[in-house]
Give the backbone structure.
Amino acid sequence: MQQAWRNSEPIEEPQFIAFVGIDWADQKHVWCWQGAGENKREGGDFAARAGAVETWVAELRQRFGDGPIAVAVEQTRAALLWQLSKYAQLHLYLVSPQTSANFRKTFYPSGAKDDPRDADLLLELVLQHRHRLRCWAPDSEATRLVQNLVEERRKLVDEKTAVLNNLTNRLKLYFPQMLEWFVRLDTSLACALLQRWPTLAELQKLSPGKLRTFFHRHHSRQRELIERRIREIHQARPALTDGAILQAQAAVVPLLVQVLIKLQEGIAKLDQQMAHAASQHPDYYLFASFPGAGAVMAPRLLAALGSQRERYRSATELQTFSGIAPVIESSGKKKWIHSRWRCPKFLRQSFHEWAGHSIRFCPWARAFYELQRGRGKGHHAAVRSLAFKWMRILFRCWQDHVAYDDNLYLARLAQRGSGLGPCIAAVKKLCITRG
């Protein structure tokens, strides 16, 4: 059995049943595979979009079975790596672009290049020289369970957002008053109202007494708010009177509300499963210790880093891979900085959202955010800067297997004479005043 390498340490590789080379592209990824002990190679491509990887992996499994498969992919393709890393049977071997280019020149000194040929060369690399490549091995089953639950929840949230946007656009057309009476349409009160009375005309047929009973039954107890809504319901004028449009929308809107309710129930159920799976993970205590990492964000942080400490060589590598680290470009005397475009979007979003949450729970994070805003940065740029800082702390705690201690970090800031000191004091004073 050959020895593979994970970073600088040798590991015993499994008995692979197949080998694959994938050449990435913006629109589609080209692949070439070969079964162990076979001489015939097959090739094809799949679209570079969400869901296409799942379909391709299903085809790969149908062709070769459920055993371990070695896959060579360029290490700069962070988004593709993240999508492939969810599957236990895929052992990813990272190939630097320079290695791939030099290997191509060995066989094609003319410089000729095309995607199927590159995929074939990547397959050759993983087939004959994988002991010289860096192995990105599958994470533990407990970690992958959390990762998959977290990502499935995000998909449901995205579907819910799409349904809400659809519902909002329809109400703007014929029943815009609903958007004034209810800040959110995904509440049980708003959903129940639209299911029973999807048009203004139907709602206005109810007496004030029946409306009060309905509001009370759905846990609306603010008397002033209830009376204002009842008054505005009976005073409202329809946005349009075209019966054809009204009847069509009245038929569709209750269906959209039913879908919205089912999605919310599904998200709630996934939340329970995700919380249970995360709580059983041996590293959960570590991620739950960070400010702003609650029932949703702590599992997402766990899914983002996993349990393989040797996967990332440094915090910088994690920051770059996730897309939080900015890209610096220069040409002549010009130099500009922008956010990273090609990266695992969900991974970057996890760190970004967590940093945003931490502002409410951590005085120094709030101070750092305000300092960035004072320097002229926009909200999201300031949050990305905060995420960049948080990730260095998170990486160190993760490597050392220790929970985060806010008091310990503040003490170290004071020892170093950090410029955040006055800002932190000002934030704490403001919090005391507001309290």
